[in-house]
Amino acid sequence: MNSNITIERKRVDCNALPKGWQREEVLRKSGISAGKVDVYYYSRALRSDASLVPPIRQTASIFKQPVTVVRNHENNKVKHDTKHGAQEKPKQLFWEKRLERMRACHASGEELDDIVLPKNLKALGPNVHEQTVMQSLATALHVLNTPVTGQTATKSEFQKNAPAFINPDQPLMQAILVSDDDIRRQEDRVNIARRKLQEALKV
């Protein structure tokens, strides 16, 4: 741009156009185009050029927005979001430990005796008591729709990093394997209990 060019501006209301329009005449006083007049029309009702730029979407990314897929090639594949639908809620690890040192009692205030774990059930976890194992086992039997087998990780793995190896869907006990002999012994106990009940009802 030539710095020697001087411009004189003159703006007046334009009566030939609706109210609010102005006519600006720009007279060039020097340079090659000296003496020429440029005419511009302005309206106060119109927006400036900067405001005519389409607005940028500033919606937070957490909200789902419709997206138009433009396919430029037949082999283009669209990735589908697999997180839609019902999702499993996260579970707190070692939630059973919040119930430690809490005892059940009668209405009179007398505490009930603790339940003793069978010999084949062994606690697994950081400072897990037998009563904590019973609470987690009872919860698993009532809530889970899958077999209750216990933790599959070894005791050494739990000692290294318990939160990394724990299965929150299983009770805090070592994995157990129920044999045919165990089932047979349990059936015998059930039959004995039934006979005792029948004899008691006859009296």
TrEMBL record:
Pfam families: MBD_C, MBDa. Residues 7-83 form the MBD domain. InterPro entries: DNA-bd_dom_sf, MBD2/MBD3_p55-bd, MeCpG-bd_2/3_C_dom, Methyl_CpG_DNA-bd. Its main location: nucleus. GO terms for biological process: DNA methylation-dependent constitutive heterochromatin formation; negative regulation of transcription by RNA polymerase II. The keyword Kinase does not apply. Keywords: DNA-binding, Nucleus, Transcription, Transcription regulation. GO terms for cellular component: nucleoplasm. One of its GO terms (molecular function) is methyl-CpG binding. It is found in: Nucleus. This is Methyl-CpG-binding domain protein 2 isoform X2. It comes from Glossina fuscipes. The gene is LOC119642770.
